[in-house]
Amino acid sequence: MTAFGFGIVGTGMIAKAIADAIGAASNARLAAVSSRTLAKAGAFVAQRPGTQAVEGLADLLARDDIDAIYLAIPTTAKEELALEAIAAGKHVLIDKPFVSAASVQRMAGAAAAAGLLFMDATHFVHHPRRSAVRAALDARIGNPRALHSQFYIQLTNRSNIRFDPAQEPTGALGDLGWYCLRAAVEYLQPQGRVVRASAVCQRDPETGAITQVTGLLGFEDGRSSSFGAGFCSGTTVNEMTLVGDKGVIQLGDFVMNWTNSFDVQASDIPTGFIHRSGSMTPKDFTFIETPSETPQQVLMVQNFADLARSGDRHAFSHYAEATRTTQSYLDAIEAAIDVR
């Protein structure tokens, strides 16, 4: 079978990570990369034999060897370009976050009407650990009641697009808080609507960009999700604790696993999760390993290609709904932000 063809729009850091993942995938190939200038696209593909550089989106969409478009572009431009790709008959893999849940619904609806896959590029949901944690919930922690998560990095360069509210209006909330909110979708799995949302944020004094946010969501079923995210730490932190009525599950690396994610490759540190129940001392904690020789970003590309080819509309709908729900939680926090 011919490898599933991807085109990429964008040449930034995350576009490079996904280009590498496509190159490592067993069922996909990178056919072409588009940028606003041919020079940028050319520099990006210089070390990628067989990948063509193109300028703009139209030439990319016209190619018969491209089955899907990966969009690694500013948030404010995503809907317009995604709808163009869908109209051209291309499946869409798209970097988060989005302008609103309504925008997600428009994109996902257009894709569904065309029989195409629309998926956000959240890597961790494709790692086998996600399924292993969900399968362990009933026996290990019982009924999930609360999720506490945090994702912090150190970022001070104001020339970074994350500091430009005109292109990335939600700053650290959309960039990092997205993963905390997606963890709530995947692991806490609340039922019903958000009945309470509160948040406090800090903004960069020069650009006005959100650089740190602490948020709380309360749901109709009584479950809650609290999180912190920001560019203000001296190290990377991506931890979560899921509390149930019989125990606790903890992940010290829930976004980027230490073993072989795109940003960290510490092969001597196993990927898995900690289960705690009863005793409070670390010597009694249980570590459940969930190994994968294939990095989660490569699994995402492979899963996307297989799913797109399957035409499984029920699965298409599942991923689209997870994206819409995550963005709806982000919208609730954004509306509740109290600037200090």
Structure explained in plain terms:
By secondary structure, the protein is an alpha/beta fold. The chain has helices at 13-24, 38-45, 58-61, 78-87, 101-113, 128-140, 171-188, 296-310, 313-336, and strands at residues 4-9, 28-35, 52-55, 68-71, 91-94, 118-120, 144-154, 194-203, 210-219, 224-230, 232-244, 248-251, 272-276, 286-289, 337-339. Strands 14-13-12-11-7-10-9-8-15 form a nine-stranded mixed sheet, covered by helices on one side. 44% of the residues are buried.
Any low-confidence stretches, pLDDT <50, length ≥5? none
What is the 3D form? Answer: globular
Number of strands: 15
- Count helical runs: 9
Largest sheet: 9 strands, mixed
- Helix fraction bin: 25-40%
Strand fraction: 25-35%
Which structural class do the helices and strands define?
Answer: alpha/beta
In short:
With 340 residues, this protein is α/β, with parallel strands linked by helices.
Structural features:
340 residues, alpha/beta, 9 helices
Topology:
Elements: E1 4-9, H1 13-24, E2 28-35, H2 38-45, E3 52-55, H3 58-61, E4 68-71, H4 78-87, E5 91-94, H5 101-113, E6 118-120, H6 128-140, E7 144-154, H7 171-188, E8 194-203, E9 210-219, E10 224-230, E11 232-244, E12 248-251, E13 272-276, E14 286-289, H8 296-310, H9 313-336, E15 337-339
Parallel strand pairs: 1-2, 1-4, 2-3, 4-5, 5-6, 7-10, 8-15
Antiparallel strand pairs: 7-11, 8-9, 9-10, 11-12, 12-13, 13-14
Helix pairs in contact: 1-8, 4-5, 5-9, 7-9
